[in-house]
UniProtKB/TrEMBL annotation:
PANTHER family: F5/8 TYPE C DOMAIN-CONTAINING PROTEIN-RELATED, F5_8 TYPE C DOMAIN-CONTAINING PROTEIN. It comes from the Eukaryota. Residues 1-58 are annotated as: Disordered. Residues 36-46 have a biased composition (Acidic residues). This is Transposase domain-containing protein.
């Protein structure tokens, strides 16, 4: 008898299968139902050995099972026959069995067992499906629901192991802030120390700023400045491996799988240009964020960035990489250095940092040691001798809260001897009420705009404050050459225009500064003895400090249950944990990390008030 060819599916069914296939690509692999774990079973494969059944081809009687003919007339059925010479199609057989299971309220597991038993009793080979997915596929349908198995602790999706168990593979993220800077080490031999530090974002301030929490990533001791592609190549490769593969740490005999992410790179302007191979801050295209070109002013002998000539076209990472590759190729063979739009070469740091979003301005150098000290030097020319004596008397006798360790031992005329902490206190708190009556009316009305702007950006309570600070800083920069003279429009003033966007991205200026890193440089310089093997000495004593057991802070029991209920400030993201600045209304903040809890005190306006 000639074998008749049957069409397995209609064109409509094929289209449905294609849509289901596209849907399955979008759905996560571990979100599918666990009942489909046996989908790799071939329906043509016998459940039992066919030799044991001694099966022959079956030819049904003409009047057998009249119900089958009734079902064929009710439902459109173009499915293949159940087996060779069968009078029943696959769809009809499956519908009869599923209706029986539904009527007697059979559970899914027993239904699959019944299908397998019936399949073993049929002649082989046969096409009776034995899985839930293939049973639905017989009617051109797919499961409309998905089953997700979540971890009861972190509520993240779990994955299925080869043994059938479920495992939570949530990756704990440690986000790194990187800082690089240099300092003189031995004056007699003119050797300098260049450091690369790291801090952990997940540690709340001020814990992340403690010297014990600062990571010494790399050291360079030499008379010459380091080449970043030599100095940091190995540490960058290790960072890339940790970003891609992660690692494990053990805390109280518990293993935690972690991955590394980077938040931003921070340094002063000379170090930033050195480590990212860009033009120095007194060049023509020195701005990190935009394409503004500086202009040389022959009257003042400086490169200025006039507000009216700003070009706010933002730099992009891809454009910066392309330009850096061009200059690196040209400078590798050319005698004269090629600089394109302020880019001098390709830095290895660009492998883990996005330019310019993750290359931030340090408000310690830009605001405190930069523009604020420049203003005081300009004011000094306007003060009389009596004014200076009165101002110095106020500064030396001022009474500050106990957590302010600031003493004004130098006159305002010696502002170059002031440290950054003096200038920070001056611009945020005491400067305006002290000097306002000694300045001309125009300047005394102009400086409050700058002081208010920096105070808003220092630790904003809401995004509206950042927007207000953005309007204030634009007005201040626009009117600064009118109040003073055009020489004030240095790059250090132009950089202030990008501070509001930086605060939107990375948080208040109080948490994006180099104060802790500069303090750490001074700390590790004390570990040097003599003039030989200086870097080895520093690294050795840093390793010794890590093995010294420090007392663990114990949280009072009465605070464990109340802290996060009263102050729900922590927000989890896919990359790192961040405390929203605009929600900080009180001092105690808790950041849970599994069974540990870190408590710190954060001031809403200043970390030292």
């Amino acid at each position: 008898m000639a074998e008749k060819h049957f069409r397995y599916y209609s064109s409509k069914v094929y289209r449905q299968q294609q849509r289901r296939a596209e849907k399955n690509k979008v759905l996560p692999q571990d979100s599918s139902s666990s009942s489909d774990s046996d989908d790799n079973i071939d329906d043509n494969e016998p459940i039992t050995d066919p030799t044991e059944l001694n099966v022959t081809n079956y030819v049904p009687d003409d009047d057998e099972n009249t119900l089958l003919h009734t079902i064929k007339h009710i439902y459109y059925d173009n499915s293949p026959l159940l087996y060779k010479n069968s009078s029943t199609s696959v769809m009809t057989a499956v519908r009869l069995l599923t209706e029986f299971c539904v009527n007697i309220n059979m559970d899914k597991s027993n239904m699959i067992k019944l299908m397998k038993i019936v399949k073993s009793l049929l002649p082989t080979p046969n096409l009776l499906p034995t899985t839930q997915k293939k049973i639905l596929g017989t009617f051109g349908k797919t499961c409309l629901s998905t089953t997700k198995y979540l971890c009861v602790n972190c509520h993240q999706l779990t994955s299925k192991t080869r043994y059938g168990s479920r495992k939570c593979e949530k990756k704990n993220t440690i986000t790194i802030v990187m800082h690089a800077d240099g300092a003189p080490l031995v004056r007699s031999t003119k050797q300098c120390l260049w450091t690369c530090f790291g801090s952990i974002v997940e540690l709340p301030p001020p814990v992340r700023e403690y010297q014990s929490a600062i990571i010494v990533m790399a050291l360079w001791v030499a008379r010459e400045k380091p080449d970043v592609n030599i100095f940091l190549t190995e540490i960058i490769q290790e960072m890339i491996d940790l970003i891609n593969n992660g690692t494990s740490i053990f805390v109280n005999n518990y293993e935690f799988k972690i991955i590394i992410r980077t938040q931003f790179f921070i340094s002063d302007l000379p170090a930033k240009s050195l480590f990212f191979k860009t033009i120095n801050f007194n060049g023509y295209f020195a701005c990190t964020c935009c394409m503004t070109r500086g202009y040389h002013n022959p009257e003042y002998g400086q490169v200025l960035y006039p507000y009216r000539m700003n070009n706010y076209t933002r730099r992009t990472h891809d454009q910066f990489i392309e330009t850096a590759e061009q200059t690196a190729t040209a400078n590798a063979f050319g005698r004269r250095e090629l600089i394109i739009e302020g880019v001098r070469g390709l830095s290895v740091l660009l492998k883990i940092f996005s330019y310019p979003d993750q290359i931030v301005y340090d408000y310690m150098h830009l605001v405190c040691l930069g523009h604020m000290s420049n203003l005081i030097r300009r004011w000094f020319k306007l003060f009389s001798k009596d004014d200076i004596i009165h101002i110095d008397h106020i500064l030396s006798n001022i009474r500050l809260p106990h957590n302010f360790s600031v003493f004004f031992n130098y006159s305002i005329a010696s502002v170059n001897d002031w440290k950054a902490k003096h200038l920070r206190l001056f611009v945020l708190y005491i400067g305006l009420p002290i000097v306002i009556k000694y300045l001309p009316s125009l300047i005394s009305s102009h400086f409050p705009i700058y002081s208010m702007c920096i105070k808003l950006l220092h630790s904003p309570n809401a995004k509206t404050e950042i927007d207000l600070a953005n309007d204030l800083i634009h007005y201040y920069c626009q009117t600064a050459p009118i109040v003073y003279d055009p020489s004030i429009e240095l790059y250090s003033l132009h950089g202030h225009l990008h501070l509001p966007a930086q605060v939107h991205e990375h948080g208040g200026l109080a948490y994006v500064s180099s104060f802790c890193f500069e303090s750490c440089i001074r700390h590790i310089k004390k570990k040097v003895h003599g003039t030989k093997q200086l870097g080895t000495q520093i690294s050795y004593w840093c390793d010794v400090e890590t093995i010294i057991q420090r007392e663990q802070f114990q949280i009072p029991q009465e605070m464990l249950s109340k802290l996060d209920e009263l102050f729900p400030l922590k927000v989890q993201t896919n990359t790192f944990d961040v405390i929203q600045v605009e929600k900080i209304k009180c001092k105690c903040i808790g950041v849970p990390f599994y069974d540990a809890l870190c408590i710190t005190e954060i001031r809403a306006y200043c970390e030292h008030d």
